[in-house]
Amino acid sequence: xxxxxxxxxxxxxxxxxxxxxxxxxxxxxxxxxxxxxxxxxxxxxxxxxxxxxxxxxxxxxxxxxxxxxxxxxxxxxxxxxxxxxxxxxxxxxxxxxxxxxxxxxxxxxxxxxxxxxxxxxxxxxxxxxxxxxxxxxxxxxxxxxxxxxxxxxxxxxxxxxxxxxxxxxxxxxxxxxxxxxxxxxxxxxxxxxxxxxxxxxxxxxxxxxxxxxxxxxxxxxxxxxxxxxxxxxxxxxxxxxxxxxxxxxxxxxxxxxxxxxxxxxxxxxxxxxxxxxxxxxxxxxxxxxxxxxxxxxxxxxxxxxxxxxxxxxxxxxxxxxxxxxxxxxxxxxxxxxxxxxxxxxxxxxxxxxxxxxxxxxxxxxxxxxxxxxxxxxxxxxxxxxxxxxxxxxxxxxxxxxxxxxxxxxxxxxxxxxxxxxxxxxxxxxxxxxxxxxx
Length: 438
What we know:
By secondary structure, the chain is α+β, with helices and mostly antiparallel strands. Among the domains are: 189-218; 221-265; 287-436, Alpha-Beta Plaits. It has 11 helices and 5 strands. Strands 4-1-3-2-5 form a 5-stranded mixed β-sheet, sandwiched between helices. A hairpin with a 4-residue loop joins strand 2 (316-321) and strand 3 (326-332). Helix 10 packs antiparallel against helix 11 (428-436). It is elongated. The chain starts with 80 loop residues before the first helix and ends with a helix.
């Protein structure tokens, strides 16, 4: 094997016998050079694999044939092509700059301390799921399926038995949401007829009891209009005494009527009990949650209305007050939630900021400490203008269970404090959502 060349590439086998050839130059009239091969004169011509051996076309001289040039068409750029490319590059650069600016603002605000979704690492699946561990023998894995004594299906330690488990039937939740059938509404004419028939039946029953002696006959109902007809001779003899007696009877009947109404009226405790019962029935149909974002709660009246209405409507939740953003989370029955939504979105003027005249006790109950230290100076900014203090509804929907057992108010000076407090109820994502748009 001859030595390889400079690029460590061996010589082609067809070119290995060129060293044994002798070349002789002989000038002819045509100026052509002829050479004589080192072999016999009639030897076969060796084909060079590195040259184009395509035979020339008829009528053309023999020689190397150049590769034909492929035609190229003119391509014209449309108007504004490079302008659009430049605009796209500028938009991309502006987007990157905006991302950096938002990240810098979040870092200054302390939001960089809040963990993001990237920090949560998905754990690898276990070697064996817990639901399958009871069916495998000790030391066996999924790789041993198919071998003997891999699964424990017989014996005293097996969980496979000949018993059939019948789960307790659970009523579907849709049945408790079915509204009660509404009573039939009567027209005015039908209402009068029904009242007339009912009163006639009561009168006949009363007359039958009087006729049988079960109850005494009532005294005649004397009025000023029938005074002379009922008490004819007596009224003529002493009209002044008769008129006084009639007036006294009229007053007694009125007093009896008013006392009967008062007896039927519910007491204060009964009204509260009835309201609480209706609120419990409303909450039993499903728990609804509202989450509001309010830029500022420096007005004490706003804090008092938030707390007092939540207490009256039997709502649970929390009001988180922060120097930059405040968050209100309420949960309860559908009826109470609808009334609270109207209060927060329509009735309260959030741009109003007036000095608070509430007593210290009411302020403390509303969640704001009566004594304001240096860390709570931002809550006492009653002279601050609030033209852009607009409420925003972040979430409105139904949840499975309550996240809070009562109404709470919390003052948080840092994002980390508010984030950790909401993380106990698994609502920390709403704080990140509120602060990201702050």
